[in-house]
Design a protein that fits this description.
The complex is a heterodimer of chains A (141) and B (158). Chain A has 141 residues and is mainly alpha-helical. Chain A has one domain. Chain A has six helices and no strands. In chain A, helix 3 runs antiparallel to helix 5. The longest helix of chain A is centred in the middle third of the chain and has 54 residues. Chain A is rod-shaped, with a radius of gyration of 34 Å. Chain A starts with a helix and ends with a helix. Chain B is mainly α. Chain B has a single domain, classed as Up-down Bundle (Butyryl-CoA Dehydrogenase, subunit A, domain 3), CATH 1.20.140.160. Chain B starts with a helix and ends with a helix. Classes of the chains: A mainly alpha (141), B mainly alpha (158). Chains A and B meet through helix 1, helix 2, helix 3 and helix 6 of A and helix 1, helix 2, helix 7 and helix 9 of B.
Protein backbone atom coordinates (compact mmCIF):
# COMPACT_ATOMS: atom_id res chain seq x y z
CA UNK A 1 0.00 0.00 0.00
CA UNK A 2 1.31 3.45 -0.89
CA UNK A 3 1.93 6.02 1.79
CA UNK A 4 -0.64 8.42 0.32
CA UNK A 5 -3.29 5.73 0.67
CA UNK A 6 -2.92 5.76 4.42
CA UNK A 7 -3.56 9.48 4.54
CA UNK A 8 -6.54 9.31 2.19
CA UNK A 9 -8.16 6.51 4.10
CA UNK A 10 -7.67 8.06 7.48
CA UNK A 11 -8.95 11.58 7.36
CA UNK A 12 -10.99 11.02 10.51
CA UNK A 13 -8.08 9.51 12.36
CA UNK A 14 -5.82 12.28 11.17
CA UNK A 15 -8.34 14.86 12.37
CA UNK A 16 -8.53 13.11 15.72
CA UNK A 17 -4.78 13.45 16.23
CA UNK A 18 -4.70 16.97 14.79
CA UNK A 19 -7.13 17.96 17.54
CA UNK A 20 -5.01 16.34 20.22
CA UNK A 21 -3.73 19.22 22.36
CA UNK A 22 -3.63 18.00 25.95
CA UNK A 23 -2.68 20.29 28.80
CA UNK A 24 0.94 19.66 29.72
CA UNK A 25 2.68 20.50 32.96
CA UNK A 26 4.57 23.81 33.08
CA UNK A 27 7.33 24.04 30.45
CA UNK A 28 9.63 26.17 32.60
CA UNK A 29 9.34 23.77 35.50
CA UNK A 30 10.10 20.84 33.23
CA UNK A 31 13.14 22.56 31.72
CA UNK A 32 14.34 23.67 35.16
CA UNK A 33 14.19 20.10 36.41
CA UNK A 34 16.08 18.92 33.33
CA UNK A 35 18.65 21.69 33.75
CA UNK A 36 19.29 20.62 37.36
CA UNK A 37 19.90 17.05 36.22
CA UNK A 38 22.24 18.20 33.47
CA UNK A 39 24.15 20.28 36.06
CA UNK A 40 24.62 17.14 38.15
CA UNK A 41 25.81 15.19 35.09
CA UNK A 42 28.27 17.95 34.14
CA UNK A 43 29.62 18.02 37.69
CA UNK A 44 30.16 14.24 37.76
CA UNK A 45 31.75 14.30 34.30
CA UNK A 46 34.18 17.03 35.33
CA UNK A 47 35.12 15.16 38.50
CA UNK A 48 35.76 12.02 36.47
CA UNK A 49 37.96 13.91 34.03
CA UNK A 50 39.93 15.45 36.89
CA UNK A 51 40.36 12.01 38.44
CA UNK A 52 41.56 10.58 35.15
CA UNK A 53 44.07 13.40 34.74
CA UNK A 54 45.33 12.75 38.26
CA UNK A 55 45.74 9.04 37.50
CA UNK A 56 47.63 9.81 34.28
CA UNK A 57 49.95 12.27 36.07
CA UNK A 58 50.70 9.72 38.77
CA UNK A 59 51.33 7.11 36.12
CA UNK A 60 53.84 9.33 34.34
CA UNK A 61 55.60 10.23 37.60
CA UNK A 62 55.82 6.56 38.58
CA UNK A 63 57.20 5.58 35.20
CA UNK A 64 59.80 8.36 35.25
CA UNK A 65 60.78 7.46 38.82
CA UNK A 66 61.14 3.80 37.82
CA UNK A 67 63.27 4.57 34.78
CA UNK A 68 65.47 7.11 36.58
CA UNK A 69 65.83 4.88 39.68
CA UNK A 70 66.66 1.85 37.57
CA UNK A 71 69.16 3.82 35.48
CA UNK A 72 70.91 5.29 38.52
CA UNK A 73 71.11 1.92 40.21
CA UNK A 74 72.56 0.30 37.11
CA UNK A 75 75.04 3.12 36.66
CA UNK A 76 76.05 2.86 40.31
CA UNK A 77 76.53 -0.90 40.04
CA UNK A 78 78.56 -0.60 36.86
CA UNK A 79 80.76 2.27 38.07
CA UNK A 80 81.43 1.60 41.71
CA UNK A 81 80.88 -2.04 42.56
CA UNK A 82 83.85 -4.37 42.39
CA UNK A 83 83.35 -7.83 40.97
CA UNK A 84 83.40 -10.35 43.76
CA UNK A 85 81.47 -13.20 45.25
CA UNK A 86 77.75 -12.75 45.00
CA UNK A 87 77.16 -13.61 48.63
CA UNK A 88 79.50 -14.50 51.48
CA UNK A 89 77.84 -16.72 54.06
CA UNK A 90 80.01 -16.01 57.06
CA UNK A 91 79.19 -14.40 60.37
CA UNK A 92 80.57 -10.92 60.51
CA UNK A 93 80.88 -8.99 63.72
CA UNK A 94 81.41 -5.83 61.88
CA UNK A 95 78.30 -4.75 59.93
CA UNK A 96 80.27 -2.50 57.61
CA UNK A 97 82.47 -5.40 56.56
CA UNK A 98 79.39 -7.50 55.91
CA UNK A 99 77.87 -4.78 53.75
CA UNK A 100 81.13 -4.19 51.95
CA UNK A 101 81.63 -7.84 51.14
CA UNK A 102 78.02 -8.41 50.07
CA UNK A 103 77.49 -5.08 48.38
CA UNK A 104 76.51 -6.54 45.01
CA UNK A 105 73.96 -8.95 46.51
CA UNK A 106 72.48 -6.24 48.74
CA UNK A 107 72.32 -3.72 45.88
CA UNK A 108 70.70 -6.21 43.55
CA UNK A 109 68.15 -7.24 46.19
CA UNK A 110 67.21 -3.65 47.04
CA UNK A 111 67.18 -2.66 43.38
CA UNK A 112 65.03 -5.62 42.43
CA UNK A 113 62.53 -4.90 45.21
CA UNK A 114 62.43 -1.22 44.29
CA UNK A 115 61.94 -1.82 40.59
CA UNK A 116 59.46 -4.62 41.26
CA UNK A 117 57.40 -2.36 43.50
CA UNK A 118 57.45 0.42 40.92
CA UNK A 119 56.45 -1.96 38.16
CA UNK A 120 53.59 -3.40 40.21
CA UNK A 121 52.36 0.12 41.05
CA UNK A 122 52.65 1.12 37.39
CA UNK A 123 50.73 -1.93 36.25
CA UNK A 124 48.00 -1.16 38.78
CA UNK A 125 47.68 2.40 37.53
CA UNK A 126 47.62 1.28 33.91
CA UNK A 127 44.88 -1.24 34.64
CA UNK A 128 42.92 1.29 36.62
CA UNK A 129 43.13 3.96 33.94
CA UNK A 130 42.25 1.69 31.03
CA UNK A 131 39.55 -0.31 32.74
CA UNK A 132 38.14 2.81 34.29
CA UNK A 133 34.39 2.59 34.05
CA UNK A 134 32.66 5.89 34.64
CA UNK A 135 29.43 6.15 36.63
CA UNK A 136 28.04 8.34 33.83
CA UNK A 137 28.61 5.53 31.34
CA UNK A 138 27.00 3.09 33.73
CA UNK A 139 24.03 5.43 33.95
CA UNK A 140 23.76 5.43 30.17
CA UNK A 141 23.56 1.66 30.14
CA UNK B 1 27.39 19.77 20.42
CA UNK B 2 27.79 21.81 23.57
CA UNK B 3 25.27 22.19 26.35
CA UNK B 4 23.82 25.48 25.08
CA UNK B 5 23.17 24.03 21.64
CA UNK B 6 21.68 20.90 23.17
CA UNK B 7 19.44 22.91 25.49
CA UNK B 8 18.26 25.08 22.60
CA UNK B 9 17.30 22.03 20.53
CA UNK B 10 15.63 20.30 23.46
CA UNK B 11 13.68 23.42 24.42
CA UNK B 12 12.31 23.52 20.89
CA UNK B 13 11.32 19.82 20.91
CA UNK B 14 10.28 19.18 24.50
CA UNK B 15 6.63 20.19 24.29
CA UNK B 16 6.02 18.13 21.19
CA UNK B 17 7.87 15.16 22.66
CA UNK B 18 5.89 15.33 25.89
CA UNK B 19 2.62 15.43 23.97
CA UNK B 20 3.69 12.36 22.02
CA UNK B 21 4.75 10.57 25.19
CA UNK B 22 1.52 11.52 26.95
CA UNK B 23 -0.42 9.80 24.18
CA UNK B 24 2.00 6.88 24.23
CA UNK B 25 1.51 6.55 28.00
CA UNK B 26 -2.25 6.85 27.43
CA UNK B 27 -2.71 9.97 29.51
CA UNK B 28 -0.28 9.30 32.34
CA UNK B 29 1.44 12.66 32.89
CA UNK B 30 3.94 11.38 35.44
CA UNK B 31 5.18 8.57 33.23
CA UNK B 32 5.29 10.83 30.18
CA UNK B 33 7.34 13.47 32.00
CA UNK B 34 9.67 10.89 33.55
CA UNK B 35 10.31 9.24 30.18
CA UNK B 36 10.84 12.64 28.55
CA UNK B 37 13.40 13.61 31.19
CA UNK B 38 15.16 10.26 31.02
CA UNK B 39 15.27 10.38 27.23
CA UNK B 40 16.72 13.88 27.25
CA UNK B 41 19.38 12.89 29.77
CA UNK B 42 20.29 9.88 27.62
CA UNK B 43 20.42 12.16 24.59
CA UNK B 44 22.66 14.59 26.46
CA UNK B 45 25.05 11.82 27.44
CA UNK B 46 25.10 10.50 23.87
CA UNK B 47 25.19 13.89 22.17
CA UNK B 48 28.66 13.23 20.76
CA UNK B 49 27.19 10.33 18.79
CA UNK B 50 24.49 12.49 17.27
CA UNK B 51 25.01 12.85 13.55
CA UNK B 52 24.00 16.32 12.40
CA UNK B 53 22.77 14.99 9.06
CA UNK B 54 19.96 13.29 10.96
CA UNK B 55 17.00 15.30 12.26
CA UNK B 56 17.48 16.04 15.95
CA UNK B 57 13.78 15.43 16.54
CA UNK B 58 13.85 11.96 15.00
CA UNK B 59 16.96 11.08 16.99
CA UNK B 60 15.32 12.26 20.21
CA UNK B 61 12.10 10.37 19.44
CA UNK B 62 14.10 7.19 18.86
CA UNK B 63 15.71 7.54 22.27
CA UNK B 64 12.34 8.34 23.86
CA UNK B 65 10.73 5.33 22.17
CA UNK B 66 13.49 3.01 23.44
CA UNK B 67 13.17 4.52 26.91
CA UNK B 68 9.42 3.89 26.78
CA UNK B 69 9.99 0.23 25.83
CA UNK B 70 12.58 -0.16 28.61
CA UNK B 71 10.09 1.24 31.09
CA UNK B 72 7.39 -1.14 29.93
CA UNK B 73 9.81 -4.01 30.38
CA UNK B 74 10.59 -2.87 33.91
CA UNK B 75 6.92 -2.41 34.76
CA UNK B 76 6.17 -5.92 33.53
CA UNK B 77 8.60 -7.21 36.13
CA UNK B 78 6.49 -5.71 38.87
CA UNK B 79 2.91 -6.02 37.75
CA UNK B 80 0.67 -6.87 34.87
CA UNK B 81 0.88 -4.01 32.40
CA UNK B 82 -2.89 -3.93 31.78
CA UNK B 83 -3.52 -3.44 35.48
CA UNK B 84 -0.89 -0.71 35.53
CA UNK B 85 -2.52 1.04 32.60
CA UNK B 86 -5.90 1.01 34.30
CA UNK B 87 -4.40 2.36 37.50
CA UNK B 88 -2.46 5.13 35.81
CA UNK B 89 -5.30 6.11 33.54
CA UNK B 90 -7.64 6.51 36.47
CA UNK B 91 -5.19 8.73 38.27
CA UNK B 92 -4.86 11.15 35.39
CA UNK B 93 -7.08 14.19 35.00
CA UNK B 94 -6.68 14.08 31.24
CA UNK B 95 -7.77 10.48 31.14
CA UNK B 96 -10.83 11.26 33.24
CA UNK B 97 -12.06 14.30 31.37
CA UNK B 98 -10.39 14.91 28.07
CA UNK B 99 -9.32 12.49 25.38
CA UNK B 100 -10.50 9.61 27.53
CA UNK B 101 -11.89 7.84 24.51
CA UNK B 102 -8.67 8.23 22.57
CA UNK B 103 -6.51 7.07 25.47
CA UNK B 104 -8.77 4.06 26.02
CA UNK B 105 -8.51 3.15 22.34
CA UNK B 106 -4.73 3.63 22.31
CA UNK B 107 -4.44 1.48 25.41
CA UNK B 108 -5.79 -1.48 23.47
CA UNK B 109 -2.93 -1.27 20.97
CA UNK B 110 0.37 -3.07 21.53
CA UNK B 111 3.20 -0.60 22.28
CA UNK B 112 4.81 -0.95 18.84
CA UNK B 113 1.57 -0.31 16.95
CA UNK B 114 0.71 2.54 19.29
CA UNK B 115 4.12 4.11 18.66
CA UNK B 116 3.83 3.72 14.90
CA UNK B 117 0.32 5.23 14.85
CA UNK B 118 1.38 8.18 17.00
CA UNK B 119 4.57 8.88 15.09
CA UNK B 120 2.72 8.74 11.81
CA UNK B 121 -0.55 10.53 12.62
CA UNK B 122 0.36 12.70 15.59
CA UNK B 123 3.92 13.68 14.67
CA UNK B 124 3.55 13.47 10.93
CA UNK B 125 6.64 11.39 10.26
CA UNK B 126 6.81 9.48 6.99
CA UNK B 127 6.77 5.69 7.00
CA UNK B 128 10.48 5.68 6.27
CA UNK B 129 11.14 7.96 9.25
CA UNK B 130 8.88 5.91 11.52
CA UNK B 131 10.76 2.79 10.45
CA UNK B 132 14.03 4.49 11.39
CA UNK B 133 12.71 5.48 14.81
CA UNK B 134 11.18 2.15 15.78
CA UNK B 135 13.93 0.00 14.18
CA UNK B 136 11.58 -1.83 11.83
CA UNK B 137 11.34 -2.31 8.11
CA UNK B 138 8.97 -0.07 6.19
CA UNK B 139 6.73 -3.06 5.46
CA UNK B 140 6.53 -3.88 9.14
CA UNK B 141 5.56 -0.28 9.89
CA UNK B 142 2.86 -0.38 7.21
CA UNK B 143 1.44 -3.51 8.80
CA UNK B 144 1.56 -1.96 12.25
CA UNK B 145 -0.20 1.14 10.95
CA UNK B 146 -2.81 -0.90 9.17
CA UNK B 147 -3.57 -3.09 12.17
CA UNK B 148 -3.47 -0.18 14.59
CA UNK B 149 -5.72 1.93 12.43
CA UNK B 150 -8.34 -0.80 12.13
CA UNK B 151 -8.31 -1.44 15.85
CA UNK B 152 -8.57 2.25 16.64
CA UNK B 153 -11.52 2.64 14.29
CA UNK B 154 -13.33 -0.24 15.95
CA UNK B 155 -12.63 1.08 19.44
CA UNK B 156 -13.58 4.64 18.59
CA UNK B 157 -16.91 3.50 17.13
CA UNK B 158 -17.82 1.60 20.30
Amino acid sequence: MKEEDFVKQDDNLQQLFDDFHPTLSDNDQFMQSLSNKLDAIDYITQRQLAQKRCYRRTLVITLVAGVVGGGLLTAFALLYLQPGSLFTLTLQADLSNFIHENLIAISLTVGTLLLGGILIATANFVLEVFSYRSPVKQMKN
Amino acid sequence: MNREQFTALVTREQESLRRFLLALCTGNHDDANDIAQEAMIKAYLARDKYCEQEKFGAWLYRIAYNTFLDRLKTQRDFCNIDEADVLTAESSADAQFEYQELYAALRTLPPKERSAILLYYLKGYSIQEVAGIVHCSEDAVKKQLSRGREQLKIKMKQ
